[in-house]
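Posting this for the archive.
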Amino acid sequence: MITLTTTAELAAFCAAARETDYVTIDTEFLRERTYYSKLCLVQLAYRGDGESDAVLVDPLVGEMSLEPLYELFADTSVVKVFHAARQDLEIFFFDDGGFPDPLFDTQVAAMVCGFGEQVGYETLVKRIAKAQVDKSSRFTDWSRRPLSDAQKAYALADVTHLRDIYEFLSAELARTDRARWVGEELKGLVDPEVYVTRPEEAWKRVKTRTTSARFMAMVQMLAAFREIYAQTNNVPRNRVFKDDVLLELASTKPRNAADLKKSRLLQREARKGEISDGILAAIEKGAAMPADDAPRPDKGMDRQQINPALADLLRVLLKAKAEDAGVAQKLIATASELDGIAAGARDGLALRGWRAEVFGDDALRLCAGEIALAAQDGSVRIVEL
């Protein structure tokens, strides 16, 4: 197992990888004690003829710059292959500001190819590569050095088997003419808005039953302060204070340090210093916010607007269409999206792109009374009206 610890070694590997069609990539990281993920290891592999075609890149040892890797990411002649890429892409986005191009996610491709919803890497290794993955090192501390041989073997397996999985799924997509479907799905993964949390919008993450303007103003200001503090100090937002504390503070509206001491949930270290000052300032801003400027949570589709019988028919249609296409139902449309269509929504994801071809177009025809559903020989078929 080869471990690269210098920029020159990484540059040499990336130069060799750029002579191939694709490179498989994975990362190991820690995030339990930080706001941003701490990158601990990068695994890379391509289809070569020797031991050097799969390596570990250790950014925690020596003087290592990932610039050669980012140059490889920008080389559009080489496909960059991940499995469940979102967290990996988030790390690279915050470090470099860009995304690998072109990108291939084997989890997305597997869902399109009929392997079920959010299929795990181990399942694909077993079913496609006909191998087993040793999971014993999965939850180890990847920031500690030296890495054990077991850790290295586990990490390297995440990219070596991925080569077989990619080649199989790529061929299957070509055979079924569904590569375009995967391309549509991956557009969302390379949208910077997916990874950026703006403090003024952090309140949207907080679940609350109370939606009065005054209460929501407090929630917005407290959530914004928490997000800014967490980002600035690189600590998890829940280490500042948890959502239940935030809701308590929004309800009790403490005005001074003495009021903060009365909190049932706020931890002692947050009752003084920068966090205490930030809480009180947020409460003051929330109190001064005009009611018309307070955020209004999306209550979702009004249940009174939904035609329940039509929603049930859409579920039957979705199940039949998903089975015909060999695609996971939730990849095509969620339950809330079906309710939205039944209530008259016409701008959902299920009605666009490949989803429209598989399900959306017929869903609209069903809503318009142009088709009906009938049972025949144990299956559901469409009847033209």
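Residues 303-384 form one domain. The longest strand covers residues 22-30.
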